[in-house]
Amino acid sequence: MRLSQIPIFTLREDPSDAEIPSHKLLVRAGYIQKLASGIYVYGPLMWRVLKKVSTIVREELDREGANEMLMPILQPREIWDESGRWNRYIADGILFHLGDSKQAELCLGPTHEEVITTYVKRICNSYKQLPFNLYQIQDKFRDEIRPRFGLMRGREFIMKDAYSFDADDAGLDRSYDAMNRAYHKIFERCGLEFSAVDADAGAIGGSGSQEFMVIADKGEDAILICDRGNYAANVEKADSRITPSPDGGAAQPLRKESTPDIRTVEQLEGFFKMPAARMAKTVLYEAVFPDHVETVAVMMRGDLEINEVKLVNAVDGLAVRLADEATVKRVTGAEVGFAGPIGLKEEVRVFADLSLQGMTNLLTGCCETDFHCLDVNPGRDFPMPEFRDLRRARSGEGCPRCDGSLIEKRGIEVGHIFKLGTKYSVPMEATFLDQNGKRKPLVMGCYGIGISRTAQSAVEQNYDENGIIWPRPIAPFEVVVAVLDPKKSDQVEVGTRLYEQLRAAGVDACLDDRAMSPGVKFKDLDLLGFPLRVVVGRRASEGIVEFSERRKSEEKSEIAVDTVLARVSS
Ligand code: ATP
Ligand code: MG
User: Which Gene3D superfamilies does its entry note (predicted)?
Assistant: First the structure.
């Protein structure tokens, strides 16, 4: 390709709505253009990048025996009612839905479990047809609450979604491992620094699940990684080893103490000279369900924090949010800051974190303004709460698998693999006949990669003050042969010959034959970020050109024209 034939329009200024470097750079370099919130046009150079990422994804999935196909974007409501997800996705506000001229309801696919399950149940009837894996690369639609960061969180974006079908759990384990292998290869080949972490299964559901996280300071996800490499998990899911709290001893009689205006854990620590690890704080939440909202209380050791994702899973609701002041007053009968397990309205379901299990003589609130209780014993002074893991693991705490400790990093979720099991096949009646002629539900896995998000993540990891530095395997072009002055015939002649030689050798090269001043051209090429550059300038007639790599520390050297191919290939 000749750059003079590609409409490349780089901008001087950062776009005003861009908060992270990769978003700024992709817009400034003209790779993407915003059409509306979370909706982007991919320009010709961006499309080259997206195609390269897709090719890597296809090659690695095909290697594991997966089959590419294509499903419709428009999906009828009926299949979403069968899986039971229509109302949930509507309530979450994530579904783009519409009616047709016959008043039938449809949605634009945010994901394709319903479609694939419907497709497979009509073609698969026997264990002899299993296992298989089907995938597609296609636009997905999600009405994200906060579309932002360019392609990172779009409302229309490109996803690869794969679905495996097996006869039993052992088969699913094999299919899942195959995808896990493929994902490692895919992100390695894309030139990304990433980590595979244990993940929460979220709205998609199912048992085992891992996310592939590109490590980046501006990533939206927090992950905890063991400093000895034995554990990595999304904070939403992570567990950790914590120091046990001091022993409370044998149960003592309950005492109530006046604590005027003492509300927080820190204030209580000072007031009672007691460590936070001997207290249980009680936090009230509103748990949101498809048809109602319920107030729940969460008891947590005073020095620890609540993980709201774990809480959503514990209540099996759609979401949780902190209860407002009026609700707190209503269910506790006290001012904010004095909630406790004693004296709570009966309708409130009480959960307690596992860290409190077996503890005696706790300090807690007792639903009375300006009072707290000492020597509180669960089961005696209030009904035994439901003990669950509700704690947010934190950096510095112990690794749950070894003696190491956890370090927090930020990550961008580029891929996610799930063991779905029979979550969709049971309600949607996708079954097969096993060896004994018995009808069984298909055992499924699903596996996503954000193609557009992956491409932008590569920029988030590879840039400098001058622009983008594409990893070579996904760069729009691997090499640019830049003719400094397209009016000089010797430069054009040497440049064109070199470009054609590189192309003939299978190198994805482009020729920068645009007429612009050298200064502007260099700035532009820095911004665009092609990994290798050959500048054909005033020494072209002597057979000398300048070779450089677009790296964080750039080095330039003058080399002979006939050594360029060898340099590029090495
Ligand atoms: P997130 O937690 O970031 O909202 P998700 O867990 O809802 O993502 P999945 O349903 O697992 O996403 O989708 C598979 C992949 O699609 C994700 O790993 C991510 O790379 C990509 N993806 C999801 N939502 C978006 C989006 N709004 N814009 C771009 N890519 C996305
Ligand atoms: Mg996910």
Answer: Anticodon-binding domain, Bira Bifunctional Protein, Domain 2
List, chain by chain if needed, residues with CB within 6 Å of any ligand 1 atom.
111, 142, 144, 153-154, 157, 159, 202, 204, 413-416, 448, 450, 452-453
Count the Cβ atoms, other than its own, within 10 Å of residue 444.
25
pLDDT given for residue 91 in this prediction: 85
pLDDT of residue 204: 58
Please tell me the residue having the least CA distance from ligand 1 atom 28: 153
Instruction: Give CATH for domain 255-388.
Output: 3.90.960.10
- Span from the CA of 415 to the centroid of ligand 2 (angstroms): 7
* Among 94, 179, 99, 98, CA closest to 140: 94
Q: What is the pLDDT of residues 249-297, one digit of tens each?
A: 999 999 999 999 999 999 999 999 999 999 999 999 999 987 899 999 9
End-to-end CA separation in angstroms for the chain = 22
One CATH from 3.40.50.300, 3.40.50.720, 3.30.930.10, 3.40.50.150 for 3-239+407-460 = 3.30.930.10
CA of 216 relative to ligand 1 center, distance in Å: 16
Is residue 139 within 8 A of residue 412, CB to CB? The reply is: no
**Poorest-pLDDT segment among 18-32, 206-220, 551-565:** 551-565
| Strand ranges, E, within 484-543 | 509-512, 532-536
Q: What's the 417 CA to ligand 2 centre distance in angstroms?
A: 8
For residue 342, the tally of other CB atoms under 10 A from its CB is: 17
pLDDT for 88 equals: 86
Atom 24 of ligand 1: nearest residue by CA position:
153
Tens of pLDDT, residue by residue over 74-120, are 999 999 999 999 988 998 899 999 999 999 999 999 999 999 999 99
SS3 for 319?
A: strand
Is residue 480 over pLDDT 70?
yes
Which residue's CA is the closest to the ligand 1 atom numbered 21?
Answer: 450
Which homologous superfamily does the CATH classification assign to the domain defined by 477-569?
Answer: Anticodon-binding domain (3.40.50.800)
pLDDT at residue 291 in the model: 84
Beta strand segments in 240-389, E: 255-258, 280-288, 293-301, 319-322, 349-353, 362-365, 371-376, 386-388
pLDDT in tens, 183-238: 999 999 999 999 999 998 765 556 689 999 999 999 999 999 999 999 999 999 99
Q: What's the confidence (pLDDT) of residue 206?
A: 61
Q: Which of 159, 160, 457 to mutate to test the pocket of ligand 1 (most atoms within 8 A of CB)?
A: 159
User: CA nearest 31: which of 455, 415, 451, 454?
Assistant: 455
H-assigned helices in 124-243: 169-189
CATH 3.30.930.10 location in the chain: 3-239+407-460
CA distances from 89 to 115, 159, 211, 490 (A): 15, 18, 22, 63
3-state helix, strand, coil in the chain (%, to 5): 30, 30, 40
Residue closest by Cα to atom 11 of ligand 1: 416
CA neighbor of 211 nearest in space, from 193, 194, 228, 188 = 194
Residue nearest atom 25 in ligand 1 by C-alpha distance: 153
